[in-house]
Each structure stands twice: as structure tokens, then as C-alpha cells.
Amino acid sequence: MKHRVRTLAVTGAFLLATAATPAVAQGNLLNDWGIDDLKQAFTNVGVTVTDSGVEDSGALYVAGKTAEGMKFLAYGTVCSDALRRCKGLNLSAGFTQDSNAEVDRRVKEIDRMAIGVRNGGENSLDVNRYIIFDDGITRKNLEMNIQVFLDISEDIWSGGGT
Q1: Is residue 8 pLDDT above 60, yes or no?
Q2: 126 touches 92 (CB < 8 A)
Q3: Domains of the chain: total
Q4: CATH number, domain at 70?
Q5: Backbone angles phi, psi at 101, to 5 degrees
Q6: Whole domain around residue 33: which residue ranges?
């Protein structure tokens, strides 16, 4: 009986400790992200990290470049200065067009539900994908979201996207 009580006590303590441990430490679930998380995700999808840091506003950013040469930026929203972690992630690429009229034409013809496109001004066609980490996202799902953004952005970069 003593052995059984001791086993139950140890098991209970373990379960309490596990419940009190943040999800990040428990496994693959991210409730927010930090620069190292994003650098690893970029590396896992074959992207070269070209820069990273913290903006004056406290937002984190990581810049990347695909094997095909497309440059893009990931930056955080709802960031904690103290923890250097963010609850939201915006993936963004901008492609210079010949004119604002060309940008407007491309914005109207691009029909991809997984991304947003807009006229960023100064002949820039901006492509974005926003990821929310509320209630957690797996590392693999983060990588899949990045890959979707890259695939669609590279298609748009090369003149496609419709």
C-alpha cells in the first residue's frame, strides 16, 4: 500500500509539473514565436536567413531569401518587449512593377485566398500572409504556412498568381 501511495504521489506531482510547464516546453506547440523559432522554421523549409533583430517598436523581424533569390520579410505583431516573443506573424514580400497602374492591374487579377495583395505605393505589389499563434500552432504547421506563402509569392514574383 505504501508503494502505491508513493507511486500516486509521484505521478500526481509529475502531472502538476507538466500542467504548469508552458506548451513550448511540453512539445511542438508554439503559443508565440521568437527569432530562433522562426530562423529554425526558415532553415527547415530551405530559406536562407539574411537578417534578424528587434525594431525600435519592439517588433521582432527575420529576413529571408529563397533558393530562387526571392527576398521577403517576416515581422511580429503583438510582441512582448520583456520576453522578445510575438503572438502574430506577418510574412511579406514586395515586387516592383513598371507603374502603379501595373500594380493595380496585378492586384485585380491575383486571386489567391491564402494571401493578401495590395498596392504598396511606389510601384510595389505587396504580398502578405498573416499567422495567428493564439491557442498554439505546431512547428510543422508554421513551416507549412511559410511554405504556402513562399510558393504563392514566388509564383506572383514570376508573373503568375491568377
Answers
A1: no
A2: yes
A3: 1
A4: 3.30.1460.10
A5: -65, -40
A6: 24-157
